[in-house]
Structures are given as structure tokens and as C-alpha cells.
Amino acid sequence: MKELNEVIGRVRGLRRGWHERTKLQRIDLYTRVTLCSLPWVFLVTWGLLPLGKAFGQGPVAVSLAVAFLTVNAGQCLLSNRNVSPAFAHYRGVEPFPLRRLRLPAVLLAVLTGLLVALAAVGGVADAGLALLVLDLPLAFATPYVLIVPVRKYVLQCAAFAVAVVALLAAVGVPGRLLFGAAFSLFVVFLLVLVSGRPSAWSLTVMWQAEEARDMQARLAVAEERLRFGRDMHDVLGRNLAVIALKSELAVELAQRGNAAAVDQMVEVQRIARASQQEVRDVVRGYREADLPTELLGAKGVLEAAGITCTVKGADGPAGIGAPLAVQAALGWVVREAATNVLRHGDPRHCVIRLTTAAGAVVLEVENDGAGAVSEVGGGSGLAGLRERLAALGGSLEAGTAGDGLFRVTATVPLTAPAARPSPATRTRAPEGR
Questions:
Q1: What is the pLDDT of residue 295?
Q2: With contact defined as beta carbons under 8 Å apart, do 110 and 75 qualify?
Q3: What is the spatial distance between Cα 341 and Cα 314, in angstroms, rounded to a whole number?
Q4: For residue 391, how many other CB atoms are within 10 A of its CB?
Q5: Is the pLDDT of residue 176 over 80?
Q6: Angstrom distance (rounded) from CA 365 to CA 313
Q7: 14 vs 317, more confident
Q8: Residue 108, pLDDT score
Q9: What is the mean pLDDT of the segment spanning 2-28?
């Protein structure tokens, strides 16, 4: 029973790890696993079945067949180890260490020699020779096609095919079987080329697009920080310059015993207090979420990340005279929901709806990234939003909505009283869940 529970736990862990991956990460993993599985599929089919004849041809043929399978299995293991570095080399992430090809190249030469020896002692059936030749270079070529240019790959494959056919001819293989072997080599080299290179190219393009979307999102955040910095400079720059000049003037007047120095310091005090209030206004405007601004910001940031965003009923709260506290609370919901979509989900579409029902404003943020977001639905960001809405008599619901959708629904009465945020809420925005 304990062993069964451990197996179930591993399966659940694998399933959880799969769901935590983004769609692009899943495609990447699927492609790598497919390329790693291909040599093994060939090994247990076309690389194993033709060797059945060898077990009736004496101990030499049996030994050669067992050695062929053993070396082929080792070649498949090395191929699996080299697939990920080969992908990294193709994407330009890091160069492939050529020393990793030494042992596979030696095993390929040994495998070729064993195949020629099997053909010489009659350890393989006539029809099976073409299948063994088809399996011969597959494991080595799978990662190798991603490392070298196509032209070099084609030339080296042609040279290898000529060498194999020449060795088989030297041990007396008939001409019709030589033609079959040459055709098998052409097929396997072409199969590796049209499966490996396009897969790697597609993944490279998708990863570059993902990096570009991430960069766009980072630029949007940087632009917002620059805007805030400009606002602070515009508010403080002029006033601080005036304060500095009037302070110098007050010092000179005081040194001369002129009573006007007091008037200058009073003016400095007034400007300082005005500047303090202006800074508070800027910070409050930055911290307090304005609903129309947040709707536009969410749409811009999501679309910059490659997510189609549709806003419906954006004029609803303003048109029906919703209190500013209600609009601010809903603005926080929009900001937090958009952040969670970027951080936790992997959607393609997001819809933001504003409606009124039974004297309340209803905000819905819905996206098709439920697979990743639903795993993290209990974070501190949603808890903070619930507290903020509860102070206005509102509520917040979040969860899957069927058809692969995840929905956040905020409901706030139009007659909600003015919110009284706690000191922590006034000084800190809600964190992502």
C-alpha cells in the first residue's frame, strides 16, 4: 500500500509539474521528449526485429547481434544526453562542446562494423538489412543535425552512406540489397533533417517571441516609473529651487539685521508645506487606483505581452455616478487581476466587463489561462482585495469558470460608504498572489 501511495504521489507530482509549465514550456518539453524517444522506437522495432535470424546462425552471429543491440542502446543514451545541449547550441544560448561527440562517433563506427560483420556471416535476413541500415545512424544524427550547418550535414551524410554501401559490397552483399541500404540511409538522413531542424527553428522563434513580449512588458513598467519620476520632478524641482533662493536671501538679510529675513523664512515655510501637500497628492494619485486609468493600463500592458484584451462597459461606473471609493477599489481589482494574468497564467485572451445589477457595480476579469492560475488562487493579493472590498460592503470571487476559463468577479454596492483603509493598506499596494 505504501509503494502504491508513492507511485500515486509521483504521478501527481508529474501532473502538477506539467500544469505549472506555460504552453511554450510544454511545447518545448514535448518536442525534446519526441526527439529523444525516436531512436528508442527505431531500436525496438527496425533495430531489433531483423536480428531474429541471427539466433539461428551459430554463436558468432548471436554474439554480433547482442553486441549490435548493446552498442545501439548506448548510442541512444548518448543521443538523449546530447539533445538538450544541441538545442541550446541551435538557439545560440551556449556552444555545443564537441568533445561530447567523440564517444558517439566511436560507437557509430563500431555499430557500422558490427552491421557489416552480421551481413558477412549471414546473421541478418535480406529484407532486414535495409531496416538495420535505417536504424544505424539515427541516434547519432538526431542531435548532430542541430549542431552543424545543413550543407555540412548533407555532405557528411552522403560520405557516410557511400562508406557503408562500399563496406557492404566488399563483404559480398548483392546489388539489390545495396540499393535498398542506400535508399534506407537517404530516408533516415532526410527524416532527421526534416524533423529536427524545423522543430528547433519553431521553438527558437517562439522563445524569441516570448522574450520580446516579456521585454515589452518590462518597458511598459519602466515607462510608468519614468512617468512617476517626471511628475515628482515637476512638483519638487521648481519649489525646491525657490526655497533655496529664498533661504539664501533670508541668511543675507539676517546677517545684516534686516527684519525682512523673517518674512522670507515665512515664505519658505509656506512653499515647503505646499510642496509637501503636492507630493502627497502625487503619491496618492499613484497609489490610489483610478478605474478608467487602470482599465487603459491593463489593456495596454496585456496587449504588450501578446494577450488580446477586450474592455466592455468601461463608462459604466462613471456614467451612473459610482462613488470615488468604489471606483478606486475596482481599479485595484483590475490592477491585481491583470498582474496575476501576466505572472501566473498563460492566456491568449482576456475580457474585462463592467455591469450594474441590483444597485451594485459588478467587475469581471476573465481569461483562458485557468490551467496555471487556478493553482495559485489563495495568495495574499486576493485576500488584500477582499479586505478592501469588504470595507465597502462588497465581495470578491475567483476561480475556474469552465471551458478552461479563470474569472475574478468583484461586486461593490453603489451606496458603499467611504473606505477607511488601514495604515498598511495606505502605504502598501496589494501583492501578487
A1: 85
A2: no
A3: 19
A4: 18
A5: yes
A6: 12
A7: 14
A8: 95
A9: 72
Cα end-to-end distance, the chain, whole Å = 37
Strand-pair partners of 352 = 311, 365
Three-state secondary structure string covering the chain: CHHHHHHHHHHHHHHHHHHHCCHHHHHHHHHHHHHHHHHHHHHHCCCCHHHHHHHHCCHHHHHHHHHHHHHHHHHHHHHHHHHHHHHHHHHCCCCCCHHHHHHHHHHHHHHHHHHHHHHHCCCCCHHHHHHHHHHCCHHHHHHHCCCCCHHHHHHHHHHHHHHHHHHHHHCCCCHHHHHHHHHHHHHHHHHHHHHHHHHHHHHHHHHHHHHHHHHHHHHHHHHHHHHHHHHHHHHHHHHHHHHHHHHHHHHHHHHCCCCHHHHHHHHHHHHHHHHHHHHHHHHHHHHCCCHHHHHHHHHHHHHHCCCEEEEECCCHHHHCCCCHHHHHHHHHHHHHHHHHHHHHCCCCEEEEEEEEECCEEEEEEEECCHHHHHHHCCCHHHHHHHHHHHCCCCEEEEEEEECCEEEEEEEEECCCCCCCCCHHHHHCCCCCC
pLDDT for res 417? 56
Q: Which of 221, 381, 408 is nearest to 300 (CA)?
A: 221
What pTM value is reported for the model? 0.54
- Residue 152, Cβ neighbours under 10 Å: how many? 11
Q: Which three cell numbers stand for residue 74?
A: 548506448
427 has pLDDT over 50: no
